[in-house]
Specification:
single chain; mainly alpha; 16 helices
């Protein structure tokens, strides 16, 4: 909506428009980016049993392989987030997708486990940088009333991409071996890069931060969303609180400090569970006596549950308290994890789907929440640092999975242990919501 003073608030204007074909195209491209990200992130878990058999690897060595990729994800997120808040989402996203596609191809030709571990770390750098930018770019083109739903819809690409890793592994492994899965993981993102170069726009909200330099470009992008007639001297605004200092420092201003720390707890605990299951679930099911091909298919139920859960949770977060929704679903995720430890047959598949719905779905919902929590100037930094700190949890999850398998702990105890971080995530996101509410209702000091 344009004011008499010749300003146009981008946030209000976007909220008053219907979703255009241009915005859906942005969402689709970001969906494709996180889909190939999910494929490359999860595929090592699906090829792990075959890799272990060919190279005679112990669970602890597999844990190191999983951990190296996750450390790369952490470092990539911590580095590329602040960079994207300075140079733009589009440039960073295209560069990181091209990077992890190329390094995944190199990984397929690793001659030994040592080089494979090193290349997974390098690939993780690109994977860690791509995801936060895709989340932010989608969020910044969505109207507020549908932001959680549309961001989770976009992020379903990650769970579907992860599931595709299981499908591809079950089809390619018997005939072409584990290297073929990594080759596919390199080819897919490299095929996506040309389309991104031609079609992917910069975030219009990010451009507003440099209003005087990008006024014509902002107007052009807005006209792709809906008809717009404004004078040449129109000033575009975001109607956000003024920020200063580095994007990282902005995370610790009084308004955001406690929320930042609580969100880091949520992401640490949540990603610990997510990546433990992503990396180890096929192996765990296979160790229970199920054939490898069937184990991979049952493990895909986790990804299917996560996709359905993300859509339901995202929609609900737009209607009621988002932190309340996440607190409840993480709590139910802990219950389903305990049930997985004692389930067999069809009930095992149902329990795994329930875990995916609640844990993976809640993690996607948490991504959408953190994208709304921070202002534009530090949004990618907020997302990427939450994910980066969360990667510490994912590294712990990868290593804990190997340690638990090596210790021959029983399945009921193993999954009961894994349920503990899910319960902690539930408490932390509930506390974050209470803290945010207290900040919003705190009376101003005269």
């Amino acid at each position: 909506m344009q004011s008499p003073q010749g300003t146009l608030d981008i946030r209000s204007w976007l909220d008053n428009q219907r979703m255009s074909l241009f915005q859906w195209r942005v969402l689709l491209l970001c969906f494709a980016c996180v889909a190939v990200d999910g494929f490359d992130t999860a595929c090592v878990g699906f090829i792990a049993p075959a890799l272990s058999q060919e190279w005679h690897l112990s669970p602890s060595i597999l844990g190191a392989l999983f951990g190296s990729g996750l450390v790369g994800l952490m470092v990539g997120a911590l580095f590329f987030g602040p960079l994207a808040d300075r140079i733009g989402r589009r440039t960073t996203l295209i560069a990181t997708v091209a990077f992890f596609g190329a390094t995944s191809l190199l990984t397929a030709y690793a001659p030994n486990i040592e080089l494979l571990v090193a290349l997974r770390f390098i690939t993780g750098l690109g994977l860690g940088g791509a995801m936060p930018n895709a989340i932010a770019l989608t969020s910044e083109y969505c109207p507020e009333r549908k932001k959680s739903l549309l961001t989770t819809v976009m992020f379903c690409g990650f769970t579907l991409g992860s599931g595709l890793g299981g499908v591809a592994a079950s089809q390619l492994l018997p005939t072409y071996g584990w290297r073929s899965v990594l080759i596919l993981g390199g080819v897919l993102p490299l095929m996506l890069v040309p389309a991104m170069l031609v079609v992917m726009p910069e975030s219009v909200r990010y451009l507003v931060l440099g209003n005087d330099d990008h006024r014509a470009k902002i107007a052009t992008l807005l006209r792709k969303i809906a008809p717009l007639t404004v004078p040449n001297n129109t000033r575009f605004t975001l109607h956000e609180a003024a920020t200063s200092g580095s994007p990282v420092r902005q995370l610790f201003t009084p308004e955001y400090r406690w929320g930042t720390l609580l969100l880091w707890v949520v992401f640490f605990m949540s990603l610990l569970v997510v990546y433990l299951l992503t990396n180890w679930l096929p192996t765990l099911i296979h160790r229970s006596g199920m054939p490898l091909a069937l184990a991979s298919k049952v493990a895909v139920m986790y990804q299917i549950g996560g996709t359905i859960g993300a859509l339901v949770i995202g929609r609900t977060m737009d209607k009621v308290s988002p932190t309340g929704v996440l607190a409840v679903t993480y709590a139910f995720g802990a219950i389903f994890l305990v049930a997985t430890g004692v389930a067999t047959g069809a009930s095992l598949a149902a329990a795994i789907m329930g875990v995916g719905f609640c844990i993976s779905g809640s993690q996607i919902g948490a991504n959408a929440y953190v994208a709304r929590y921070y202002p534009t100037a530090s949004r990618v930094t907020g997302i990427s640092w939450a994910l980066g700190i969360g990667r510490l949890g994912s590294v712990v999850g990868a290593l804990v999975g190997g340690a638990l398998l090596s210790s021959d702990v029983t399945f009921p105890i193993l999954f009961s242990i894994v349920a503990v971080p899910a319960a902690i995530a539930s408490l932390a996101i509930f506390a974050c919501g209470r803290k945010r509410l207290a900040m919003e209702t705190k009376p101003a000091i005269a």
